[in-house]
TrEMBL record:
Record's keyword annotation contains Metal-binding: yes
GO biological process: small molecule metabolic process
Annotated keywords: Metal-binding
Protein name, as recorded: 2-dehydro-3-deoxy-D-xylonate dehydratase
Transmembrane region(s): none
InterPro entries: FAH, Fumarylacetoacetase-like_C, Fumarylacetoacetase_C_sf
Family note: Belongs to the FAH family.
Positions of the Fumarylacetoacetase-like C-terminal domain: 197-345
Domain of life from the UniProt record: Bacteria
UniProt GO MF annotations: catalytic activity; metal ion binding
Length: 374
């Protein structure tokens, strides 16, 4: 997988302000891209959480133009560190329908095809035409209950409250170029290409990046109580390549209008493409942020996966079996203003172990004389 920063940054990177993290032999560094030049800002902000809180993206040690890439021996890692990793699900009509299919098929991909057309015909148009929490949505809920079509997933799709869950522990996310994991005992799973918002402790959104919220359809389909087991596994959350910070040339309106393209390339020659159009989201991204903030406190800030429109239904091998990952699949998520995030699929069992937790990071920064800069 190429490590050239030019390959993974958006075409207009010279006009934008970007922040990320890279790892050297010494440990993690916080880096920034300004006017097409790369800076190590770790001496001013030793964590991305601190940089976001203090808006500390200026200054730093000049490392050269982006074209020259990272120093020898450095590699990109996830651009977030101490922030909580939150996610919203069932934020698109299609994802709501697919979750109901999972629930009714009890996680069985073969049964799903039998249910899909019926649900789309009876539920799809209604979900697409109502505002969640509105009087019209509540009328649709009543009608679906009368038809025996109601589901817990439809509750969060059209009800007043969004689904918000904790996706991954602090510091456990992986970045561009890393292996990404699905459980070794999952037989029906897929990537979820999403926009990820980056917020400070008050819930103010400073920018956005890309993410892959790996989804185990068989686990969650068997029971919604398996959500945590389905979502939180080693290397199951990828974020990157950089956070693009809001400025005059990139705003929340660009997020609302973003297309997030997905490409899956298998070692067997398999190829699948799809697009997550943020314009079709059922709830505004800032409403999702407000619901995530709610009555919580995030002293180190949080990042929020906004959900996905994409749910692959194409058969890969067995007729009626739908799509599922194979080892070695290359997953690339790309968006015009945010760049490109690529990962290779392995199992969570075989992925490199997660070793730098909060204590290890604090010890590393203390040894480097950076603990006061967190």
């Amino acid at each position: 997988m190429p490590e050239s920063l030019i390959d993974i940054l958006p075409a207009d990177f010279r006009e934008g302000l970007f922040a990320g993290r890279a790892e050297s032999e010494a440990g993690p560094h916080v880096i920034a891209i300004r006017s097409g030049e790369l800076f190590d800002i770790t001496d001013d902000a030793a964590t991305m959480s601190g940089a976001v809180a203090r808006r500390a993206f200026s200054g730093g040690r000049h490392m050269g133009p982006v074209e020259e890439g990272l120093p020898e021996g450095w590699r990109l890692i996830s651009p977030v560190d101490l922030q909580c990793i939150k996610a919203c699900g069932v934020t698109f009509a299609l994802s709501a329908i697919e979750r109901v299919i999972e629930e009714r098929a009890r996680g069985d991909a073969a049964k799903a095809a039998e249910i899909r057309d019926l649900l789309e015909e009876r539920v799809g148009s209604g979900i697409r035409s109502v505002v969640p929490g509105s009087d019209e949505a509540m009328a649709l809920k009543t009608a679906l209950i009368d038809q025996g079509m109601w589901s817990q997933y439809l509750e969060v799709a059209i009800g007043p409250d969004a689904e918000v869950f904790s996706k991954s522990p602090v510091l456990s996310t992986v970045g561009h170029g890393a292996l990404i994991g699905v459980r070794s005992d999952s037989s029906w799973n897929n990537p979820e290409p999403e926009v990820v918002l980056v917020a400070d402790a008050s819930g103010t959104v400073l920018g956005a990046t890309l993410g892959n919220d790996v989804n185990l359809r068989d686990f969650e389909g068997r029971s919604a109580l398996l959500l945590s087991k389905a979502k939180d596994n080693t290397a199951s959350c990828s974020i990157g390549p950089f956070i693009r910070l809001f400025d005059d040339g990139f705003t929340i309106d660009d997020v609302r209008a973003a297309n997030v393209d997905l490409l899956i390339e298998g070692t067997d020659g398999y190829r699948l493409e799809g697009t997550n159009r943020m314009s079709e989201i059922s709830r505004d991204p800032l409403d999702l942020v407000d619901q995530t903030l709610s009555e919580h406190h995030y002293p180190d800030g949080f990042v929020l996966f906004c959900g996905t429109l994409f749910a692959p239904t194409q058969d890969r091998d067995t007729p009626g079996g739908g799509f599922t990952h194979k080892l070695g699949d290359k997953v690339t998520i790309r968006s015009e203003k945010l760049g490109s995030l690529s990962n290779i699929v392995t199992t969570s069992r075989d992925a490199p172990p997660w070793t730098m937790g909060i204590a290890a990071l604090m010890r590393n920064l203390a040894a480097r004389g950076l603990i006061e800069k967190v």
